[in-house]
Amino acid sequence: MSGIRVRSPRELRGQRRRRAHGCWDHLVVAVLWPMHEANLGTLLRTCDAVGACLAVPRLPWVPEALARGNTLRTRSCVHWTGHDPVRWLIDQKSRPETTVVGVELADESVRLGDLKSARNRTIAVLGHERTGIPPEAVDQLDVVVEIPMVGTGSSLNVAVAGSLVLYRLAGLM
After folding, report:
1. CA dist 84 to 11, 52, 59, 130, 159, Å?
2. Which Gene3D superfamilies would you find in this protein's record (predicted)?
3. Residue 84 is part of which domain span?
């Protein structure tokens, strides 16, 4: 054995940085065109891990998907966007000191490794898993981030992509 000591869950909780968290105070991930139920649960868990909020449309299946995905069984920060995702995005962008970051493949995109931590209120927009972010929503983005890939796929699923971007924006990687 190499002498590695694994920390207990209690020790880990005690070592986490203390930071007040309230809905809408700093970091929001917006899944405006959700496709798969399991992905919402994964993102909800990531939101808890990084102190972010999740914004989703009130589609008939979404509340149940969030309830199933919330494996921590604690109250999570979820905001309902309404039925017009682009209008919601325009409204959010009009709030003071808000930066809208889209996760998309674009000529002007910044590589994930070069993305800076969120300094002000930031909304990370995730597109539909097959079609991406619609053109009318792309017009609302301040920054576009791309996640480099070496394999044969053209993109990651929305939960994995969103989790990577959230950790980067939260300054945890």
Report:
1. 44, 22, 11, 19, 22
2. 3.40.1280.10
3. 20-169
Q: Determine the 3-state secondary structure of 124 from DSSP.
A: strand
- For 37-63, give the DSSP string: HHHHHHHHHHHHHHT-EEEE---TTHH
Q: What is the pLDDT of residues 126-153, one digit of tens each?
A: 988 888 899 999 999 999 999 998 888 8
* Total domains, the chain: 1
Over residues 106-123, the pLDDT tens digits come to 888 999 999 999 989 999
Instruction: Report if residue 8 sits inside a domain.
Output: no
Residue 14: which residues within 8 A CB-CB, separation 6 or more? Answer: none
- pTM value? 0.84
DSSP state of 7: P
* Short-list 157, 165, 50, 40, CA closest to 101: 165
Give the span between the Cα atoms of 72 and 89, in whole angstroms: 29
SS3 151: coil
